[in-house]
């Protein structure tokens, strides 16, 4: 099962941020732009890291920002943000982070297939540096093996 | 055998850890039940687990346990999971 289509609004390339909070906020902004979440979800994603630390940096250079399902999640969504300058999240092995994924799900069960597919994509260690170096949305989609949503296709 | 994959909120990262831990166990030909959970649930879900897989950031939050705590640096690196699970279970 491939990942669901990724709207252009859910992708941000070469974003300038000051710190990890800015990086997570950028992933939250992209989720909001694509209609998946409301701003409260972005605050909750930052809150997860405030509470539990930088464990969301699950691989070298990659953070998977997320929070629990809630009323601020309208539809399941994924966003992809690449940073112009990598930032430290405070992880002992995987800093600095240059790619931030934002993940929003509406229930604990439905996301298992989505996450399994993410694992498939990122089991290839070349994907993270290639995403960080990508300069256009089509390259990002191609690396993730996803399409644009039907309304964006010519 | 029971293995717990732990993250802060019990979705997302712990689910990725669970998926890749199952791939590592298949490669090792070990049968085990892998459960994803959050910090709040690890006491009840993890009490009879043999291994708890997690990030170095969350080790303190686990508290007292009889399980082996195995810290995974790269959640997408099945080779790392294979090597560390083999050590913990061997």
Structural features, described:
Chain A: It is found in: Cytoplasm. Chain A: InterPro entries: Ascorbate-PTS_EIIA_comp, PTrfase/Anion_transptr, PTS_EIIA_type-2_dom. The complex is a heterodimer of chains A (154) and B (90). Chain A has 154 residues and is an alpha/beta fold. Chain A has a single domain (10-143), classed as Mannitol-specific EII, Chain A (3-Layer(aba) Sandwich), CATH 3.40.930.10. Chain A is 35% helix and 19% strand. Chain A has 5 helices and 4 strands, in the order βααβββααα. A 4-stranded mixed β-sheet of chain A has the order 1-3-4-2, sandwiched between helices. In chain A, helix 1 runs antiparallel to helix 2 (39-52). The model of chain A has no long low-confidence stretch (mean pLDDT 94). Chain B is of the alpha/beta class. Chain B has a single domain (2-77), classed as 3-Layer(aba) Sandwich (Rossmann fold). Chain B is 40% helix and 22% strand. Chain B contains 4 helices and 4 strands; from the N terminus they run E-H-E-H-E-H-E-H. Chain B has helices at 13-28, 42-45, 59-62, 78-89; strands at residues 2-7, 33-38, 51-54, 68-71. The longest helix of chain B is centred in the first third of the chain and has 16 residues, at 13-28. Chain B is globular and about 30 Å long. The model of chain B has no long low-confidence stretch (mean pLDDT 93). Chains A and B meet through helix 2 and helix 3 of A and helix 1 of B.
């Amino acid at each position: 099962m491939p990942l669901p289509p990724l709207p252009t609004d859910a992708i941000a390339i070469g974003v300038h941020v000051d710190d990890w909070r800015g990086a997570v906020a950028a992933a939250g902004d992209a989720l909001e732009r694509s209609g998946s979440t409301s701003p409260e979800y972005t605050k909750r994603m930052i809150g997860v890291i405030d509470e539990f630390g930088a464990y969301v940096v699950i691989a070298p250079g990659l953070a998977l920002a997320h929070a629990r399902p809630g009323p601020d999640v309208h539809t399941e969504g994924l966003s992809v943000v690449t940073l112009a300058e990598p930032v430290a999240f405070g992880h002992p092995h995987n800093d600095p982070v240059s790619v931030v994924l934002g993940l929003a799900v509406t229930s604990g069960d439905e996301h298992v297939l989505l996450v399994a597919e993410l694992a498939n994509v990122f089991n290839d260690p070349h994907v993270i540096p290639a995403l960080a170096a990508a300069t256009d949305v089509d390259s990002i989609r191609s690396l993730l093996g996803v399409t644009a949503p039907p309304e964006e296709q010519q | 055998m029971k293995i717990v994959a732990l993250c802060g909120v019990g979705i997302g990262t712990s689910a990725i850890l669970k998926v890749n831990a199952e791939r590592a166990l298949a490669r090792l030909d070990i049968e085990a039940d892998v459960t994803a959970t959050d910090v709040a649930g690890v006491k009840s879900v993890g009490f009879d687990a043999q291994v708890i897989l997690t990030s170095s950031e969350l080790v303190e939050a686990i508290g007292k346990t009889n399980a082996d705590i195995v810290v995974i640096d790269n959640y997408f690196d099945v080779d790392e999971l294979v090597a560390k699970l083999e050590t913990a279970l061997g």
